[in-house]
Amino acid sequence: KLVAFEVERIKAEEGNPPKMIKHVRELAEQLFKNENPNPHIAFQKVPRPTEGSHLRVHILPFPRINEGRVQELLQEGLARSQGAPTTTRGDKKCVVPAGPPVGMFICS
Fold first, then answer.
1. Alpha-carbon span 88 to 108, nearest angstrom
2. Can you give the pTM of this predicted structure?
């Protein structure tokens, strides 16, 4: 609604650029206020870390790897890959619907 009423006023002021720019700025400020009604809510406060938190170790130890199990999995994978034919994924053809016309996005 705000922009709809201002368009006619801006068109009427095309001969007077400083006045037109002033009204466009006012419109921009009003639109910004509509999107951000309370500037204090827009910024989140990040809590400060507790004292000494940088000294604590937060890294969990990496679990031990079972070498025998790793070898078993490698052997199973090799056996499967040697016995199975290589599969290639065929291209699926499909129709892509047309989007909005390009001229729709050009602003004057």
1. 49
2. 0.32
